[in-house]
């Protein structure tokens, strides 16, 4: 029997991925669940000045160090701890420090582009897509990025029009077809979150019975 299961939660920026992830995490015993954000695996850009880092297209698959993400997911599956990078949205770069992540039975991986890459998809036991209309997503993103990511209204709008929206249409939206479960409006869809949790609890019970 597997050491762990990995649940992938994809969806556009502002769709409610982190909210779904937190709601699901709260239903699982604390010592059995860990969260991996694809955002933590943005490529290291220390060699570039801030003025260049601001201009990076953070919604294109090239922006992510998926090689490291895949390596870490495989290590966790193998019961090995990892040093997860920590991302700084204000500086547009990885921090120098990392966070020790101990392998747990349930791993929740969340991020905009986790379903676009076949090698990541193949590591996922449950694939979820949080499906929220673009007008709702941009409003949520404006509020969040100004409050939590040190952005101005103008910068959020410019970034949305130049890179976020085109990459969403090119990469994120088409990846919905790979999902096992599509959650409309994300966030607080209790029925959908309970259904995923039922599958998680069945796995944990089976694992306990096998020990
Ligand atoms: N169902 C919802 N109703 C209202 N606000 C929500 C809902 N889901 C998420 N939010 C808010 O929208 C913002 C973006 O949600 P978040 O879960 O961080 O999205 P994502 O991780 O997909 O970018 C957050 O400030 C969050 O509190
Ligand atoms: N330096 C960065 C890195 C990423 N972004 C944006 O974050 C979005 C993904 O995070 P969500 O929590 O919204 O899913 C993505 O759309 C990037 O545009 C950024 O603005 N700056």
From TrEMBL:
Q: Which reaction does it catalyse?
A: uridine + ATP = UMP + ADP + H(+); cytidine + ATP = CMP + ADP + H(+)
**EC number assigned by the record:** 2.7.1.48
- Identify the residues that bind ATP: 11-18
| Keyword field contains Lipid biosynthesis | no
Which molecular-function annotation in GO is an example for this chain?
uridine kinase activity
Domain Phosphoribulokinase/uridine kinase intervals: 6-191
The lineage's top-level taxon is Bacteria
Keywords, alphabetical: ATP-binding, Cytoplasm, Kinase, Nucleotide-binding, Transferase
- Record keywords: Chaperone included? no
Where in or outside the cell is it found? Cytoplasm
- CDD domains the UniProt entry points to: UMPK
Q: Name one GO biological process term.
A: CTP salvage
Just give the chief location class: cytoplasm
The family database entries (NCBIfam families) matched by this protein are listed as: PRK05480.1, udk
Similarity section: Belongs to the uridine kinase family.
Protein name, UniProt field: Uridine kinase
Q: Which species expresses this protein natively?
A: Anaerosphaera aminiphila DSM 21120
**Gene label:** udk
């Amino acid at each position: 029997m597997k050491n762990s299961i990995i649940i992938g939660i994809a969806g556009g920026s502002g769709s409610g991925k982190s909210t779904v992830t937190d709601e699901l995490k709260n239903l699982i015993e604390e010592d059995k669940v860990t969260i991996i954000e694809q955002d933590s695996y943005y490529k290291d850009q220390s060699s570039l000045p801030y003025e260049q880092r601001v201009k990076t297209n953070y919604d294109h698959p090239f922006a992510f160090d998926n090689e490291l993400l895949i390596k870490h997911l495989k290590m966790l599956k193998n019961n090995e701890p990892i040093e997860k990078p920590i991302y700084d949205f204000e500086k547009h770069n990885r921090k120098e420090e990392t966070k020790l992540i101990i392998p747990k039975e349930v791993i929740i991986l969340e991020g905009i582009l986790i379903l676009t890459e076949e090698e990541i998809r193949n590591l996922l036991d449950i694939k979820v897509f949080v499906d929220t209309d673009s007008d709702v997503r941009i409003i949520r993103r404006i509020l969040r990025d100004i409050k939590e990511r040190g952005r101005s209204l103008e910068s959020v709008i410019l970034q949305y029009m130049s890179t976020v929206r085109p990459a969403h249409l090119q990469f994120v939206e088409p990846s919905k077809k790979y999902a096992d479960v599509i959650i409309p409006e994300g966030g607080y869809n209790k029925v959908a979150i309970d259904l995923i949790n039922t599958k998680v609890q069945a796995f944990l019970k089976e694992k306990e019975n096998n020990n």
